[in-house]
Design a protein that fits this description.
This protein is α+β, with helices and mostly antiparallel strands and 382 residues long. It has 13 helices and 12 strands.
Length: 382
């Protein structure tokens, strides 16, 4: 392998894990083939194709970066096998003006004379391709073709790695978003109770500085004894000696009731080689005003009226029917009639079952907004 090719291969694999390095890799690839312009395309369909990198002068670069050009380039390759070089003269057809095939327009610009293309990846609807261009009157000769052929296996493997990295990052982002919507505070920790990932609810609880702290050296309680109790629970769970998990009450600095904490193991049956791995998740419940008001969600999910929603939330807060009826300023008969309607709409038959359904359902989910944790208040009504 030539020195230039070796440098390009190194750049290709670097870019597979660090997408911001693709422009440099494409520049080295283009230089090996003597190309004046090029684009490396990647996407899930012709409508979503986007260049990982483009190469060429300013005007040509802008043209190659256009989504319509990327879609046309991918379409031009058809459904052929990957790894096969295709060479085309430019333009590929007479240019008929605005609205014509953007690839034809590119050839008609006079800036490129011959195109070289190779499909690099076709997996589960995802495609990737390399297109290189030479100036008008120039051709890709055999040494140029040989240089690209030598890089094709590396480019194909790098595209597969890029795809897997992108999918892993997307899944991590989606999981993080879901994690943030859990009403309970949740912190992924290692065996020493050092935080790896904390959701929004946990960060908000810690920000109150009321007996629960998320620090780089580990989770902390109000006192050294509280911290030791929390760390001991995490260590026990990490050693798999705590069964399905441990529960504890963590005192607050204020006079409020203690935090309720559950430490549960994760990753059972899977051995991770990374040093700082998540071995447990610490759930912490703040029964104060920081929990969301799921009134609108109750109405959306079950079709409850405003009055029924108020009654359901009062029962969820621990009130009995007589107390709830008094709070709502309605007769007991009216309250029981509303409760019967709630049972019917939620497919429940008792107050205990209703509370269980609500606790396991909307009360465990936050709104997707990053600026507010509460649903709009429920207006009074029938």
């Amino acid at each position: 392998m030539q020195h230039g090719a070796g440098t390009a291969v190194e750049a290709i694999y670097e870019a597979a894990a660090s997408p911001q390095a693709w422009p440099r890799a494409l520049g080295l690839i283009a230089a090996l083939a003597g190309a004046s312009a090029g684009t490396l395309l990647f996407g899930a369909s012709t409508e979503e194709i986007a260049p990982l990198a483009t190469f060429g002068d300013g005007e040509l670069n802008a043209a190659l970066a256009a989504a319509t050009v990327g879609a046309a380039l991918i379409s031009r390759l058809g459904d052929g096998a990957t790894g096969v070089l295709v060479s085309n003269k430019m333009p590929l057809a007479p240019y008929r003006g605005e609205g014509d095939d953007p690839l034809v327009a590119l050839g008609a610009s006079g800036k490129v004379g011959e195109a070289l293309a190779v499909g690099l990846l076709r997996e589960e609807g995802v495609v990737a391709a390399l297109w290189l261009f030479r100036r008008l009157g120039e051709r890709f000769d055999h040494p140029d073709l040989d240089a690209i052929r030598e890089l094709i296996p590396h480019l194909s493997r790098a595209m597969l790695v890029h795809l897997r990295v992108e999918r892993a990052e997307r899944r991590a982002a989606e999981a993080g978003d879901a994690f943030d919507r859990v009403a309970l505070g949740a912190v992924l920790v290692d065996g020493a109770a050092r935080p790896i990932l904390a959701n929004r609810a946990a960060k908000r609880i810690a920000a109150q500085n009321d007996g629960f702290v998320i620090a780089s050296d580990g989770l902390h309680g109000r006192t050294a004894a509280d911290t030791g109790m929390l760390h001991a629970a995490v260590a026990s769970v990490a050693r798999r000696s705590a069964g399905t998990g441990l529960g504890l009450r963590l005192p607050r600095t204020s006079s409020s009731r203690p935090y309720e904490v559950m430490v549960v193991p994760i990753g059972r049956g899977r051995k991770w080689q990374a040093r700082q791995r998540a071995t447990a998740v610490v759930f912490i419940s703040d029964s104060g005003p920081s929990l969301l008001n799921p009134a609108q969600l109750l109405r959306d999910l079950y079709g409850l009226t405003s009055a029924e929603t108020h009654l359901a939330l009062l029962l969820l807060s621990g009130q009995g029917m007589p107390e709830a009826a008094k709070t709502l300023s309605v007769s007991r008969n009216t309250a029981h009639s509303q409760l019967a309607s709630i049972f019917r709409k939620t497919d429940t038959t008792s107050q205990a079952e209703l509370v269980r359904v609500l606790v396991c359902g909307p009360c465990a989910v936050r709104v997707p907004s990053g600026s507010s944790d509460a649903y709009p208040p429920v207006e009074a009504g029938p």
